């Protein structure tokens, strides 16, 4: 079942599923964030890694990412993503997924309607950490993403506890802090 606001609130406040947890939807003069009817709108921190073309004749290879192709960027208010480009960010919130709950991270329509796409990603049962957020600018213009504001919604699905949780299988992204680059193991 998809978890409604009151169940998300209970998991966040009594079981530390979301930290820090905002118990309402904040909407005034910001891209919204916080608890919604059937999800939680997470925020993007002011830390980014920007892919920079041809810095070292690098190729983006998920098996062997060349960190020299990524430039660190700190944003007080926002970041401008170059046209047809891509950045990595991270959630402000730290998630601790219960063993019977899956989170699905979906981009917010406010950004999608502006050509800014957030990759869909699962938060598996038993996983914990900051969410590394993949943000693409599909437009031919620079695109603005606001730090400390909403970037994606997490929808929580509750089911049976799996035989082996992400924590138990010692997943490669368990307890990740900050922006975490691709790993094979």
From TrEMBL:
Sorted UniProt keywords: Hydrolase, Nucleotide metabolism, Nucleotide-binding
List of catalytic residues: 134 (proton donor/acceptor)
Domain of life of the source: Bacteria
One Pfam family here: DCD
PANTHER family (alphabetical): DCTP DEAMINASE (PTHR42680)
GO biological process, one term: dUTP biosynthetic process
Key word Nucleotide-binding present: yes
Protein name: dCTP deaminase
Catalytic reaction annotation: dCTP + H2O + H(+) = dUTP + NH4(+)
Subunit structure of this chain's protein: Homotrimer.
Record-stated family: Belongs to the dCTP deaminase family.
KW Ribosomal protein (keyword) present: no
EC number: 3.5.4.13
GO molecular function: dCTP deaminase activity; nucleotide binding
Binding sites annotated in the UniProt record for dCTP: 108-113, 153, 166, 172, 176
Top-tier EC class: hydrolase
Pathway listed: Pyrimidine metabolism; dUMP biosynthesis; dUMP from dCTP (dUTP route): step 1/2
Functional summary from the UniProt entry: Catalyzes the deamination of dCTP to dUTP.
């Amino acid at each position: 079942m998809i978890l409604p606001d009151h169940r998300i609130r209970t998991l966040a406040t009594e079981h530390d599923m979301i930290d820090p947890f905002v118990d309402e939807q904040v909407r005034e003069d910001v891209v919204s964030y916080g608890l919604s009817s059937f999800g939680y709108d997470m925020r993007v921190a002011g830390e980014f890694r920007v892919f920079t073309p041809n810095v070292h004749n690098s190729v983006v290879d998920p098996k062997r990412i060349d960190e020299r192709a990524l430039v660190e960027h700190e944003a007080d208010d926002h970041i401008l993503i170059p046209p047809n480009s891509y950045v990595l960010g991270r959630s402000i919130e730290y998630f601790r997924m219960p063993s019977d709950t899956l989170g699905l991270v979906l981009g917010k329509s406010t950004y999608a309607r502006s050509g800014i796409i957030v990759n869909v990603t699962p938060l598996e049962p038993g996983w914990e950490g900051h969410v590394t957020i993949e943000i693409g600018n599909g437009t031919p213009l620079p695109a603005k993403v606001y730090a400390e504001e909403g970037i994606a919604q997490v929808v929580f699905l509750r089911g049976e506890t799996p035989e082996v949780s992400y924590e138990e299988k010692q997943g490669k992204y368990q307890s990740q802090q900050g922006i975490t680059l691709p790993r094979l193991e």
